[in-house]
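Box 3.1. Reading complex inputs
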Amino acid sequence: MKRLLRAGWWWLLLCRTTVAAFFGLAAYSKLVPPNASQRFLEGVKAFKILPDHLVIAAANTIPWAEAICALLLLLGAWTRAAALVIAALLGSFLYGLLTVINRADGSVSECSCFGDFIKICDGPPGTCHLVLDGALLCLALVVLLFGPGRLSVDHLCASRKPPEGVDYVREVVRQEGRPI
Amino acid sequence: MRILVRALAIIGAAGLAGIAYSWTRPVMLRAPEREPAPRGTSTTPHDASPDTPSDNQPAADQTDEHRPGDPGDAPSPPDLGPVVPVDPDSLGTRISLQEARYLHTLIDSGEVVFLDARGHEGDYEAGHIAGALHLTIDMIDNDQGQVMGFSPNYFLVSVMPRGTRYVIYCNGGECDESVNLNIRLFDRGVEVTHIMTDGYPHWKDAGLPVATGPEPGP
């Protein structure tokens, strides 16, 4: 597996940039257009899975977490941490979607998941949203498990950093798949 | 472990950015929508706007005193009495029918602009306060003709005269459309706004000036 990943490091780059593109656009559409923040807040509230004070906290925090993670994934800096946050976000999104789909009361007219720029899934939460979020979760998990790949700030820093201590050696061995 | 710490740092940074951003673009939870109270019940304009001075509109209260058993009876226009001048600067955000009535007399001078915030198609054309312009939340936020996520009306609001006093109305009651339009205008720097909580139906029933048809062109 390691050999496969070394040979096809662009795979990881593709996973990274795909997740970064989705979440970058999602963050943009939740932050920049007029009234986007308010609409996202109302979208979160419509899911009815959080108390009001957490709705406001989530509506203020999630878009920025998406933006920061998208930037980090794109650069390949703190990649695994960004992938972990993205995976946690997607996990919570999936939980919310499943809750709304099971409730089936028609209270959520649109998903508010990725804003107006990504129109892969329209309309109320459904199977399409679950598949999309599930696919992105898989990509995020791949990045979380296998790291950023060679074309990344993390890799650049790791290769320039002088070896110090057993932990660092272990980390390099884990990233490179071979002893230094 | 290091990954977890970094993930928490990312979430913390996002939280701080969110707090800072919410100062510039505050978001708020709206009150749940309530059905407008049926006409002819004990609901009065004061119920719709509890902060309205009670001594200002004794006759307006009588507007809703219709007997439920007389559905065919056209409500007779109530006698609001003479227009009582008020100091516009002393008015709060929510104003009564009487106060709005006085401000309406200032339309011709250009000091005051009435904005019809009702979003339902055809409402404005069917009847609106005389001289009122039609500006709804959808006109600002709609997706048509957007450039990089901004609608043309978004820029229109940005150039609305700031020295003018704006009176917003919809159908009364909770008047969600007026409140939301007020928030949007405030976000864009239009600060001197009032919401006529009694709404268009009360204005019309009071026999105050109304007009029909589309908004006149420039």
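In summary: Helices of chain A lie at 2-7, 9-31, 36-47, 52-75, 79-103, 127-146, 153-160, 165-176.
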